[in-house]
Design brief:
Distance between the termini: 152 Å
Oligomer: single chain
Number of strands: 6
Strand content: 15-25%
Largest sheet: 6 strands, antiparallel
Helix content: 25-40%
Radius of gyration: 48 Å
Number of helices: 5
Length: 228
């Protein structure tokens, strides 16, 4: 009896020690430490600048005299369209500098020598004397002497049917090697007129429509532009 009690006591102690010292069968995952928040540093703001910066200087183009328009000469209808066409032809950017680059007032004295139609456009073949009044930007004065350019010109107009016309084209023969070819193109099918114009008797041609003389146009422009 005493021996059985001792065995039972030893078994009880063994089981107790085994339950207390055994390691867990699953390893627990380590939880990383939570980083401490970085303190936010707030700098004092600079006081707002209430003074506005001065505006940048604006470069203005030099004042030029007004470009001539048909209205300055009280041209209407066909005369207004011919004036616009002749002026556009002179300032064609293909062969001559624009007004702002080389300031001058150009007034065309137009003599219409003949007309022909092609594709719904009426072409007016003209002899034009362009008077060039050069302007000095420093003195704000025109030169006493004016330059001249006498040339043939073709102006293409479309009749709007209400007494007005739309300028479709303006053609001047340029200086240089293309002069003769373009001059022939100006006259189109008007072969006889072309032969007369290029002959020694060109001065005998009678215009079928004519503008005021160059001197009269200049005075009309000065009055309309209020130039003394």
């Amino acid at each position: 009896m005493k021996r059985i009690c001792l065995l039972t006591l030893g078994l009880t102690l063994t089981l107790a020690l085994t339950g207390c010292g055994a390691a867990p069968t699953e390893q627990s995952q380590a939880i990383p430490p939570t980083p401490s928040p970085t303190p936010e540093i707030i700098l004092p703001s600079e006081p707002a600048n209430t003074e506005s910066a001065p505006p940048a200087p604006v470069e203005t183009a030099p004042a030029l005299p007004p470009e001539p328009t048909a209205a300055m000469f009280r041209f209407e209808g066909l005369d207004a369209a011919l004036f616009d066409g002749a002026y556009r032809a002179y300032f064609d950017p293909e062969w001559i500098t624009p007004f702002a680059d080389f300031p001058r007032i150009v007034l065309p004295h137009i003599n219409v020598l003949g007309t022909y139609e092609d594709g719904g456009i009426t072409y007016y073949v003209c002899d034009i004397m362009y008077k060039q009044h050069y302007y000095d930007e420093e003195t704000k004065q025109f030169d006493d002497k004016a330059g001249s350019l006498a040339t043939a010109c073709r102006i293409g107009l479309a009749d709007n049917g209400d007494g007005t016309y739309t300028v479709e084209s303006g053609l001047l023969p340029p200086s240089g090697g293309d002069y003769s070819r373009v001059l022939r193109e100006v006259f189109g099918p008007l072969e006889e007129l072309y032969q007369q114009y290029t002959s020694d008797n060109a001065g005998a041609l009678t215009p079928i429509r004519s503008f005021p003389a160059s001197e009269e146009l200049w005075e009309m422009y000065r009055e309309a532009a209020d130039i003394e």
